[in-house]
Amino acid sequence: MRPRGAVGRRDGAGAGSALPRWVLLPAGAGLALFVLPLLGILSRVPWTRFGALLTSESALTALLLSLRTASVSTVLCVLLGVPMALVLARGHVPGTRVLRSVVLLPLVLPPVVGGLALLWALGRNGLLGPALSVLGIEVGFSTAAVVLAQTFVSLPFLVLSLEGALLSAGDRFEAVAATLGARPGRVLLRVTVPLVAPGLVSGAVLAFARSLGEFGATLTFAGSLQGVTRTLPLEVYLQRETDPDAAAAMSLLLVVVAVVVVVAVRGRRSAP
Amino acid sequence: MSLHVDVRLTARDLDVALDVATGEVVAVLGPNGAGKSTLLAVLAGLLRPSAGKVVLDGTVLAEGSGTFVPPHRRGVGLLAQEALLFPHLDVTANVAFGPRSAGASRARARTRALEVLAEVGVADLAARRPRELSGGQAQRVAIARALAADPRLLLLDEPLAALDVTAAPEVRQVLRRVLARGDRSALLVTHDPLDALALADRAVVVEGGRVTESGPVQQVLTAPRSRFGARLAGLDLLPGVLTAEGLRTRDGGLVAGLAGDPPAAPGGRGVAVFSPAAVAVHPRDPGGSPRNRWAATVVDVSPRGEVVRVRTRLEALPEHDVQADVTLAAAAELDLAPGAAVHLVVKATAVRLHPTV
What we know:
Chain A is mainly alpha-helical. Chain A has helices spanning 4-12, 24-44, 50-54, 57-90, 96-108, 111-122, 129-134, 143-169, 172-179, 184-195, 197-213, 216-222, 232-242, 244-270. The A-B interface holds A 1-3, 172-173, 175-184, 186-187, 190-191, 194-195, 197 and B 44-46, 70-78, 80-84, 86-88, 97-98, 101-102, 135, 138-139, 145-146, 149, 151, 155, 162-163.
């Protein structure tokens, strides 16, 4: 049986009452706020030297570091975020509301503050610093710190996206799977995860994009060492005065990546 | 005894005891929100009862706050109103899901799936995706999927309710064939008396989280002892206490009637059941014998083919509606409309008195 509600919703989509025209004015102003800066970047990009600027050693190093760290932090987000979303959506544990607020925190916290918080928790003089030092682990100002900072800010995107998918999928398929004799582990892998795969993919893509663009937490927790912690956004920030052309070219690259991500996620969401 | 249930679930105000013999199919009837689906969820292991016991084929599935066998180890199949086929698996993989979960090899699970699909008459759908199936086809595949897991008990939660008029008979036939084999117990939640008659050996009526009636389907539908049973059967029903003279209702009035089957023992709780066709409607108190005469107010008037059904509320027992069927001519003559005051009379010979649980 097809879910009747979904069809009804789609049928009714065009049947809403007309909008008052004045709504278009602030809506247009809002759109301009997004579009104008993009035009600003395009106006600054030195198109003739575009390729050369992007393939300069420092730009390439930063780009590769960004791709590497963002990939690792996306994997970390999936490994940590999927269980978190499952607990939030299906765990029936007390305090879910509080837990959800905690997960939301990095989303609304200024990344710089997040970076400082990480430093004070995991840095050499932080809460766990001495303990980590004993184990021979120095997190602060290393590539690992970049990955941690990125994971810190990106995790909520994956958790919230996946939790939404889990809640809207409901647990009825899982109940049926259990009555068919499937153990909880099998239900999770064979039913739950495939059902929410679109939500998981879009969550991972969002997390990757957020990691790629991370700046504040990275700078405060990991610093800006070329080849070690200086990711593309840090490179852009560094170059903005010494070589504005290079900054513009790298900015455009980040914009293109962002657009690709948005299209990918939206395409996923609107697919049946 | 195959299934023995005696459970309480305080949060949902459920307190149900029932037994199902091996191979027996029991219809669970009742109004919306009576606790029928909650009962099935308790049996499937999706809800934990707060007290009581569920025993299936000698295995304790749940007992008080102690033993609780999780759903995947119960051997209890569940078929819901919607087929709920896994959308990411094709039909064969959906049906093979149960055998695979039980540890069968890929090949054996597949063989078993194709076997059951053929049994249910949908072998031709084996390679389809769930979204390519009609409602009736999907439900038949869902039946096959439930059977392939080889459940000891099958729970059917309004399996035909979401199907259109052409698909329902086909699926009903499949269920009839599957359930008639007599080797598997089943509980069938339904609101359709036809389903109960076609598929079940026995019916229980659940109202307000309690079993209010239990007996052969035929008896529940023709000689109901519960309000819901009476509604299904289209009969009027008044509850009370049985005495030597008749049924004493809550207001102290007496309903005279013929002893039902089995004959009612005086002193116990019972019901008076009569057909709306046996209720005469008068504009004024007709006098005569004081028995089975009630002042009432018309609540609703609706045409039903040759007759007009008049729903009334008794002045003495406002919590019970009594329906009367009158001819169109009589309805016009009496000027029946909601709010009209009338007097109802039922001959004692048209009333059956049954004891209740």
